[in-house]
């Protein structure tokens, strides 16, 4: 019971943070999950079921549900779509615009759309999508068509940023079409990995038939999660953080992250070698590309930075901006001003080193450079070996090892 209580307290705190329209004595509707992925599966299922019920009542077919999102969606939406058989209709990106365009999204909405999913804090560049504009356009479209297509906000990262740094920004339950929101406790919720939350606007937005009531644990326990049992440590840690830090505490942490983001961004701008593709208003991260990546590209910078102990991923943008490559640094709570300056310094060292090297070094050149102390031939051979061959080799060695041990110990394992 302790567990349910703690979980419900967290749900209530987060629902208030997201401006859920609750009466004083009313408790919020939501659940703790393993992360935003599970939260999104549950929210998606609720939308699918609501849409099916409505269509059935109207005597209309229910075999082609779809979700409209930007091509920048996190992979868990593709998982939801494939596992639960919903078509994902993606609004394409374009160079210089890396989030879902609300106009285009609303154009793609049809009678089979179970929801439009907006992202508060795109994984790729941290940018907040314009949920208010989306809401307004969709209200109009719903009026014209008689549909009532709702919105889900994937606030995995931004859900613990926007309420503290941009309280005036309307992206949450203040907008009437926003019916559910997910957030990751293990991102800016400041809890270790394994916790996420999904909150519904009202009881009516979570179809009752998806909730299971069990009584064999001593009291009525409603459950709506993909898994049944789960550890309570993350829920307790989330509750601890919420009450230990409070609104002020979270705001201080987020402000600090934002300040360090600015230090890093300005340091990178000073090199005059990068275009910044993240926004000042968004998740505190810096996403940047080289102004000129003809001689050397972002992947080489990422590779060389590892030598200094930095893991800065480089990746290409989704369609239709796949020709753009970016590097991304997400600012964590424990990142500091000094670390930001050191990172800029190390990036400058890497740039300097690349400038002295011939264009686009191949892995052979790197090996010849003595980076890993192996002769170039060995390195080239290794890279030719397919993953399958490597797996087979490891399996063979493992088998030998286990057989030898079994013989020695004379046990069955
Ligand atoms: C991280 C992230 C997810 C997935 O969240 P998990 O908590 O890792 O399951 C989904 N959407 C967005 C926008 C994210 O940034």
TrEMBL record:
InterPro entries: Glutamate_decarboxylase (IPR010107), PyrdxlP-dep_de-COase (IPR002129), PyrdxlP-dep_Trfase (IPR015424), PyrdxlP-dep_Trfase_major (IPR015421). Its cofactor is pyridoxal 5'-phosphate. Signal peptide: none annotated. The keyword Signal does not apply. Transmembrane segments: none annotated. GO terms for biological process: glutamate metabolic process. Residues 368-385 have a biased composition (Basic and acidic residues). It catalyses: L-glutamate + H(+) = 4-aminobutanoate + CO2. Its EC number is 4.1.1.15. Residues 362-385 are annotated as: Disordered. It is an enzyme of class 4 (lyase). Belongs to the group II decarboxylase family. This is Glutamate decarboxylase. It comes from Prunus persica (Peach).
